[in-house]
Amino acid sequence: MDSDSNKPDPHDPTWSSLPSSDSTFFFTRDDDNDLHNTHKITDFTWSYNSSDLSADVEGYQPSDPPTTTATASGSSDSHLLPGDQTSDIIPPNPSASSSSSEDLADKNIVVLFKIESNIKGSYDYEVKKKGQKRIRQPRFAFMTKSEVDHLEDGYRWRKYGQKAVKNSPFPRSYYRCTNSKCTVKKRVERSSEDPSIVITTYEGQHCHHTIGFPRNSGFLSHEGAFLGHFAPPMSSHHQSPFLYQGMQFSHDSSVTRSIAQASISSASVQQAHHQQQAPSDTTDSPSSVSQQLPPLSSGEGLLGDIVPPGMRNP
DNA sequence: CGTCTTTGACCTGCGC
DNA sequence: GCGCAGGTCAAAGACG
């Protein structure tokens, strides 16, 4: 019964589903995880593909190995309704993060959230469009406290649309993976309630590697080197060095990698920002985010490219 | 010249 | 059927 207490129960008043568009649900817990009021790191990952639904959830503590791991699994063959799917999914254990909430609040990072439940109760639903069937793929959304709207995640994206969102002063941007064989899309929008939070929704799964050696883009060159450390080949089942982040990837979910990479990118930005704001603050845990990353040259690389000039140290 | 962003038009689903 | 909102297309322009 203990494990059930961590499941989002629609009848449990301590769990709530934040309103969001379409069929996306952000589960949070009023007593501990109010995304609008707290800035906690609660890193966890999801593995999700067409034949198997599973999730690895890990509480993250800066100085300790992951203390909480939960796994939920299911099968698309079971024809679960959306509610059933999400109720099978175990969100991060609030207690695992609460022990370090003071430190984590300083990191100024929000993470994230899984989701996905498909419209109309079907796992994959099809929509006829000009004689063709369009398959709506599973979606994953997460929230990141970031000043950067479009979080880098190791893939190249082409923006194909932007729309104003009702009841929100911030537009929603639509991106598509630039790989012609890849159908992954993502939406990026800012929370209307907390403009510092970026909501990114991925749809689909990459069928290719991240960008290892991109074109002559300064950012991507650094990023490629960065991801070269972190992103295993899709065929690899070795443990990812992302364990440094308290994350663990299961199977081959490139979407999961995208999410985690974006989260780390954001974490790096926020960490840089944090250091810039309080350069003399040495009270951070020695295993804070940036210190767990492979060394990057000072002011260069990922941080140097992501962080707006105004945020950088001179 | 290739790539990417912008942006108005268009398409689709849904509620009334 | 109509209107609204979300999502997508594609032409035009910007940029390196």
UniProtKB/TrEMBL annotation:
InterPro entries reported in the protein's UniProt record: WRKY_dom, WRKY_dom_sf, WRKY_plant
UniProt subcellular location: Nucleus
Protein name, UniProt field: WRKY domain-containing protein
Region (Disordered) residue spans: 1-33, 55-102, 262-314
Keyword Nucleus tagged: yes
WRKY domain location: 146-211
Compositional bias annotation for Low complexity: 66-78, 262-304
Gene3D superfamilies cross-referenced by the UniProt entry: WRKY domain
